[in-house]
Structure formats: C-alpha cells, structure tokens
Amino acid sequence: MRLYRTTQGLARGDGEELLLLDVPHHDVAELLADNAQDAAVRGRLPLAEATLLTPVARPKTVVIVGANYAGHIAEAALKVPITPAFFPITPGPELFVGTGKPIVLPAEAPDRVDYEAELAVVLGAPAADVKAEDAARYIAGFTVANDVSARDVQFRGMRDGAVVDLSLLQRAKGFPTFKPLGPALVTPDELGDDLTVTTRVNGLLRQQGRTSEMLFPVAELVAAVSAKIPLAAGDVILTGTPAGVALASGEYLRAGDVVEVSVEGIGSLRNEVSTGGS
Q1: Which of 147, 216, 244, 258 shows a CA-CA span of 20 to 30 A to 67?
Q2: Can you list the alpha helix ranges (DSSP code H) found in the chain?
Q3: For the chain, what are the domain ranges?
C-alpha cells in the first residue's frame, strides 16, 4: 500500500489517483498505528495535482546511520564499523520538507552542502530492545530521504574518522530543510530487499547503489538502534548512503541546483537548492 500526506489530508495511492481518506489523522504513522489505512474514501485527487507533504509530520527522533555502504566508507575515508554506527537528532520544526520544496543553504555554512540518497524506515509502534527477527513487526513502512549535510560543520566534530563532538554532527545534519522526506510511505509488503538508490543533480547521475549492499540490513539496524534509543511510532531511521556523494568529488550543492533522490518502488524527491538560510 502507498500512503500519502497531502495538503488535503491523508490518502491511499490508486494508480495515478489519490483516494482521500475520511479520517481525523494528520500523520501516516498514526493512521497505521490505528489500523485505519482502509478507511472510507471521501474524495479523489489526481496524483499529479496533489501537493505532497512528508509522510510523517514531525518525528520525535530521527536516527542517522553512517558508514553502511562499503563504497561510501572508502570515499569518505571512514573506518569499517563492526556494529552499526548511528546517532540521533531531535528534529526542529523546519527540518523536514516534502518533494518540490527548496533545500536552503544555511548562511552559517553554505559552501560544502552535500546530498545523501537513503532508504528511510518509519516506525509504526514504540520500539525498545527489539530483536532483529522481530523488527518487521515495528516497521510501518519505508520512504525516501535526502540526508543533506553541511560537511564543514560535520568534520569540525570529527578527527581521524572518529567523532569528537557529536553536537557538531547533529548540527551539520539538522539545519532547516536538510531532510527532504517522501513522497509516499510504502508498506513492507510492497517492497523487496534489493532496491536501487540513486541521486541525480541537474539530471546527472551522482549516486547509484542497492539496498542489498548495506553492511547492516534494516532488521539489524532496528535492533541496534532500539537497544540504545527508545523509539516511538513515527520515528525515522535513515539507513546510510551509497558512494557518490559530493564529499568525494567536490561538487557540492549550489543555489539553483535541482537534486532528485530516488528509491526503487517508492518514488523520488525533487528539491531545488536556494539561498537565504539563517
């Protein structure tokens, strides 16, 4: 099932149309938690005419997984982790943007802003100390994320590939508009375990990997994260990015660039880069 959050309410996907649901919910994760995804339909809307919002309105916690693809580990000169490497950020009110909304270069750090295409996991139930074999029970679905990062801020918090100031990493990942998310939440039954993940900037392919290449697959990530961070329904885990980021090429994002990140079977996020951030 494909579920959307739009300016006209929550909806199920039906081909090229959206079925607007007669529900009081404002968040797809809440909808699934109440098992209301099959609610009555109050109207139809062409998908092409819909203004799509992020599937979850404002998670309490976003978990950033790093170093989960060998190619990215090599290009970033990171150490290969023995266990999943991750840290949480607490989202500000302007962190998440939907497809079609701008990524704003922050005035504090506009010169080394990078993209990272990622599969995002959305929790459908509170999770603590979840076993990997039970992880599927806690997953509402999957969406697409662009884990935008200010690399100069990030690397002020690192030394020799190790974190020395976590607050700087959290700031580097947490500027307003730095987490495009969407366009839909797709339930696990609709997806396989080997999905193509790509980034294009101004139409040119920058990243291409497959989720089967993750060092730690989704179930292991849910188990590792929930062992250290209590998760709530609607929380999001970003699962890492494949090779091809601007950190390696030096081709950082500039105002006017159009970034499109995609995950096979879910869809694409298309965001133009602009200036004017605080």
Answers
A1: 258
A2: 28-33, 70-75, 151-156, 166-173, 218-228, 246-249
A3: 1-52, 54-277
